């Protein structure tokens, strides 16, 4: 189901990476971007859990890109945000959801009351927290993603660790633009936003 699939995708989105040694550089068309490969687990408050495997990318103040990988290494979901926009692509269904990344829509998609700017700042600069949730950085210098991150909310906890850096195939200049891949049908982002504050964990442990 779409709702459960995007919950798993957002599990990856919560951890957005930057290149080892500093921020990612956005290069020209046709370039290949370096992204972080992360592995970890989603543990729900009700005891259910599942592994998580994602490719992640970020650049301040609000640009991010995440690909949730399936068991054979191919992307199942792609989440991209930047310039005040967000796009979530369901690869298996061949459809994307895109639109302006208003705080309410971002919160609905992520399942947490957090803005894109807060998310990226919390991952690249310092830990952030709000009512009922927190995003904690492990050791690491400001401007670069640490080796470990932990996201907690009333619904459960997500723990991921960096495994390695990889070169992402395709046009690296498209990362962090908030636009879906070219040539794919696009529907309004509002259709995807749950708005119930539980999208991150509801279903992420059930796929």
Give descriptors for this structure.
about 210 residues; mainly beta; 11-stranded mixed β-sheet
Describe it.
By secondary structure, the protein is mainly beta. The chain has one domain (2-191): outer membrane lipoprotein receptor (LolB), chain A (Clam). Helix content is 14%, strand content 39%. It has 3 helices and 11 strands. The protein has an 11-stranded mixed beta sheet with strand order 7-8-9-10-1-2-3-4-5-6-11, covered by helices on one side. The chain is globular, with a radius of gyration of 15 Å. The chain starts with a helix and ends in a 19-residue tail after the last strand. 43% of the residues are buried.
Distance between the termini: 10 Å
Largest sheet: 11 strands, mixed
Rg, rounded, reads 15 Å
Strands side by side in the biggest sheet = 7-8-9-10-1-2-3-4-5-6-11
Structural class estimated from helices and strands: mainly beta
Number of domains: 1
CATH class: Mainly Beta
Topology, please?
Elements (H helix, E strand, L loop, with lengths): L1 H12 L19 E12 L4 E11 L3 E7 L5 E8 L2 E6 L4 E6 L2 H8 L5 H9 L3 E3 L2 E5 L10 E6 L2 E13 L17 E3 L19
Q: In brief, what are we looking at here?
A:
With 207 residues, this protein is mainly β.
């Amino acid at each position: 189901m779409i709702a459960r699939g995007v919950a798993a995708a957002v599990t990856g989105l919560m951890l957005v990476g930057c290149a080892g040694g500093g921020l990612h550089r956005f290069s020209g068309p046709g370039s290949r971007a370096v992204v972080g490969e992360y592995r970890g687990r989603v543990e729900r408050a009700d005891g259910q859990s599942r592994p998580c495997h994602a490719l992640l990318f970020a650049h301040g103040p609000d640009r991010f890109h995440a690909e949730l990988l399936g068991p054979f290494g191919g992307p199942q979901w792609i989440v991209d945000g930047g310039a005040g926009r967000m796009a979530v692509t369901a690869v298996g269904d061949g459809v994307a959801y895109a639109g302006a990344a208003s705080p309410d829509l971002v919160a609905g998609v992520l399942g947490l009351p957090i803005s894109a700017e807060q998310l990226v700042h919390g991952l690249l600069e310092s830990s952030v927290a709000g009512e009922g949730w927190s995003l904690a950085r492990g050791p690491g210098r400001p401007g670069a993603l640490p080796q470990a991150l932990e996201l907690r909310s009333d619904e459960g906890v997500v723990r991921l660790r960096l495994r390695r850096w990889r070169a992402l195939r395709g046009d690296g200049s498209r990362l962090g633009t908030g636009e879906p891949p070219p040539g794919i049908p696009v529907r309004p982002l509002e259709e995807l936003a749950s708005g119930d504050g539980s999208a991150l964990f509801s279903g992420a442990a059930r796929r």
